[in-house]
Design goal:
Order of helices and strands: HHHEEHEHEHEEEEEHEHEHEEHH
Shape: globular
Number of helices: 11
């Protein structure tokens, strides 16, 4: 008989590509994992993956069981979620704010899925350009803030969603596009296009320019990411964008991107939540959905 633990093992093997990493993910020794796989292959009377292949490759039988694992584990997850709803109730409020419009790219699909799973939760959201969302969170006016700029506020917890690289976008024919990476001084004679927020909330200033004592020649603002990209593409300035945002426009051939410094700058995107909200099942579910969607769909982001 195939058990849930077997299916979880197959998924872990597919996602990691190695027995060693799969064992670590499942909190098993490599010996215990190997024994479990031999047991499963004995039960189904066939081999499920090709030994000594790198990355690990599944046989046709293994691929068929992977399909079963995806279906069954998804159903188990749905059932667990439904039980939580029955135990803890479905009613609640989740008012959200975001500190950059780029997050709309992944937030809206996450919300659509979430609405179907938690229809009784009252949802609303707003941008963070016209007010300070983190103080509003602490005061109870909103319930969750998407931010890359955590502040020490009593009663507020920060849940990491994913890591990403802040990249400098330039026109394809810009002289800076010839460099492998950029230094702060490279922007001293450039117009920097940014979102209309204070400098202390922009990584390009706090982690790149200001520590080096560099000031751009001019600063121009726009609330719309697409407008920023169009200005850069037409040679009217440079801008800093998350790699997962810039990737779309690089793929279209509109702009080029370079790392800020030899090793790049890698901020973390967080979900800020009040402490008393963090344990609520419908909040936990939203955070899980957001993480899963981003890690699956956004280019260049890293799990934390």
């Amino acid at each position: 008989m195939i058990e849930i633990r077997h299916l979880k093992t197959l998924i872990a093997l597919r996602e990691t590509g190695s027995l060693v990493e799969a064992a670590e993910r499942l909190f098993l020794t490599q010996s215990a994992l190997s024994h479990q796989l031999k047991e499963l292959e004995s039960r189904v009377e066939c081999e499920l993956f090709i030994r000594k292949s790198r990355p690990l490759r599944f046989t046709e039988a293994g691929k068929r069981l992977l399909l079963l694992a995806e279906d069954v584990l998804a159903r188990v997850s749905d059932a667990e979620r439904d039980v939580k709803k029955l135990v803890h109730g479905e009613a609640g409020r989740l008012y959200m704010a975001i500190e950059c419009h780029s997050c709309f790219n992944w937030l809206m699909p996450t919300i659509e899925v979430y609405r179907n799973q938690w229809p009784a939760i009252e949802l609303d959201f707003s941008g963070g350009f016209t007010f300070e969302p983190l103080p509003a969170l602490a005061q109870g006016d909103i319930d969750l803030v998407i931010t890359s700029d955590p502040q020490a506020i009593k009663g507020v917890e920060y849940v990491p969603l994913f890591g990403y690289e802040m990249q400098i976008a330039v026109a394809n024919e810009h002289p800076l596009a010839a460099k492998n990476y950029l230094q702060p001084q490279d922007l001293a004679d450039q117009t920097l296009i940014s979102y209309p927020v204070s400098r202390d909330r922009l990584d390009v200033f706090t982690q790149f320019l200001l520590p080096a004592g560099v000031e751009p020649a001019a600063v121009r603002t726009s609330e719309l990411t697409l407008m920023m990209v169009q200005l850069v593409a037409s040679g009217r300035g440079v801008c800093a964008l998350p790699n997962w945002v810039a990737a779309e426009y690089v793929a279209q051939g509109l702009i080029s991107v370079r790392s800020a410094g030899k090793n790049g700058i890698w901020p973390t995107l967080y979900a800020a939540v009040r402490e008393e909200y963090l344990a609520l099942p419908y909040v936990q579910e939203f955070l899980a959905l957001a993480k899963a969607h981003c890690l699956k769909n956004l280019r260049g982001v890293t799990s934390l």
